[in-house]
Amino acid sequence: MTDVAVDPDRSVGTLYRKVAADLREAITSGAYGEAGRLPAEGAIAEQYGVSRGTVRQALAVLRADGLVTSRRGTRRVVLGTARVQSFSELLSFTHWARSMGEEPGGRLESLLRRPADAAEREQLRLEPGSEVYVTLRLRTLSGTPVMVERTVYPSWVGECVAQLPPDVVSHTEPLREHGILFTDADHTIDVVAANADDARLLGCRRGSPLLREKRRTTDPTGIPVEWSQDRYLPGTVAFSIHNSLASSALSRHAREGD
Amino acid sequence: MTDVAVDPDRSVGTLYRKVAADLREAITSGAYGEAGRLPAEGAIAEQYGVSRGTVRQALAVLRADGLVTSRRGTRRVVLGTARVQSFSELLSFTHWARSMGEEPGGRLESLLRRPADAAEREQLRLEPGSEVYVTLRLRTLSGTPVMVERTVYPSWVGECVAQLPPDVVSHTEPLREHGILFTDADHTIDVVAANADDARLLGCRRGSPLLREKRRTTDPTGIPVEWSQDRYLPGTVAFSIHNSLASSALSRHAREGD
DNA sequence: CCGGCCAAGTTGGCTGTGCAACTTCGCTGA
DNA sequence: TCAGCGAAGTTGCACAGCCAACTTGGCCGG
User: Is residue B54 helix, strand or coil?
Assistant: First the structure.
């Protein structure tokens, strides 16, 4: 099996993704230099035998990833050759870990089913009286604990999760086999103090600072499939984001109390 | 109508931005419901008297902001109605604070000029021997300190910064007057312990956890204009990200029978 | 009642065209 | 020498059309 999954562009057989993959490869390999200029859209279009619109579609992908600039009147300029982790790696801990060359692991600490509280119904868009599955998992990178994951699933997802073996590494992959897809997510990142469980699982002191990522994930139809709180040990991970005037994926907002 | 001047879409007189602004307004006001379906692209196009391509361009903006889904074969679905205006607030602490109804403040603690070290030359793409301006600033919201900002400017930017009065609230606005624009930024977010300066300025204990944002900003041409480290008091701000697989998820359902 | 098939509706992808706005650079004239 | 002008090059924006892939819902038959 060719492990092409590393390249998000080439995975689907559309023209603009192929062009984007080629250009990304050329940019990250330094073919255009550190702050070099790309060929004109028309030149790229002719080179690939496609229309200029297709090339523009490909370049929009690279612009969104922060690889190139985009101004009217002048050619695109390489912003950075450093390989930026694509957002797809934010959707799955397993996928993200593997993309960094680490070996992801996980252990299910607890799993229970109970009625959803008000906040959970709000986040998962559930009717009053609905039940949810709540999991607590310890995540490791190459054997060392790095993150505690508290996830709330709606029952139709939780029933699948409950059938997975407790030491399964990836959740999204087996769920995909059941037709449950994770495609869109909203993340909120802040700092929180470790509680007793966190301290025990991560091997840190109670009250020591953890990087918290709250995440609400939906499937392609917009239906929420999970609501999760991940708490990372400092120093092990950091979140990297690129944004530009054209397309902004990151925003800063005042924290609401909880 | 509630036409706020903050609206990023309507600021420029292009068709697709106007359409995007209208749709965003309608979505956030709940006109299509919490998880409602948008009109078809063709219907929107006819309504505005524009081509379908223009509508698609507008919808791409909303999809990038995480407002709507986007699947082949079915109409777009509203993902969330609550959404903050995005980019200008991220680049400018001042602009962000005001949009939240808070009164931003700032005080310059120190400013010096010195040769750039290796890391700074790397980040700002400077020649060996170049000089940089280094500032340390305390930022406040409605009088209370929330953030310590350590910024390194290349000399051509720093010379403008150095001429600003020490109690100036916004930096990006006066710099824009000099033709220095902030358009692209790479952010890295993690946790760090407060050092002596942080503790003194923010009024916290030494070693207490702070949310750190490292930021490298470039102008429209791709030239780095600042490299900054912001350290936030926990509980004051959080960072929010939306990401999407958007299209790469061609789901292979398990075939029945085998 | 249920399952499968089909048609209508909808978005994704690609092409081709045209014009406007903007940048860059060389040349000209003062 | 240098400021300014203008032409060439480049991207942004918009239009029109075509087909493929996919979803949905209804119809029909078992």
Answer: helix
Sign for the CA dihedral angle at A165, A166, A167, A168 comes to: positive
Residue A179 distance to chain B (closest CA, Å):
6
Interface of B with A in 141-200 (CB under 8 A): 183-193
pTM for this predicted structure: 0.85
Across the interface, whether the CB atoms of B254 and A178 are under 8 A apart is answered yes
Once rounded to an integer, what is the mean pLDDT over residues A84-101? Answer: 74
From CA A174, how far away is CA B7, in angstroms rounded? 42
- Chunked into runs of 10 residues, chain B (258 residues) has average pLDDT values of 45 86 94 93 97 97 91 94 59 80 91 96 93 96 94 95 90 86 88 95 94 93 95 86 58 28
Phi and psi angles of residue B175, each rounded to the nearest 5 degrees, phi first: -65, -35
Q: pLDDT value at position A240?
A: 80
Q: What percent of chain A has pLDDT over 70?
A: 87
Q: Pairing relation of β-strands A144-154 and A131-141?
A: antiparallel
Please list the residues that pair with B37 across neighbouring strands.
B77
Q: Which residues pair with B231 in a beta bridge?
A: B148, B212
A61 CB-near residues (< 8 Å, 6+ apart)? A9, A16, A17, A20
Q: Residue A58 has which token pair?
A: 């490909």
Check CB contact of A254 with chain B, cutoff 8 Å.
yes
- What is the C-alpha to C-alpha distance for residues A201 and A107, in angstroms, rounded to an integer? 10
CA end-to-end distance (rounded Å), chain B:
57
**Which positions in strand D are less than 7 Å from the protein's CB atoms?**
9-17, 20-24
B114 bridge partner residues: B132
Q: Is A173 helix (H, G, I), strand (E, B) or coil?
A: helix
Inter-chain residue contact A250 with B241, CB threshold 8 Å: yes
Q: Which two tokens stand for residue A238?
A: 């950091």
Q: Do B87 and A245 touch (CB under 8 A)?
A: yes
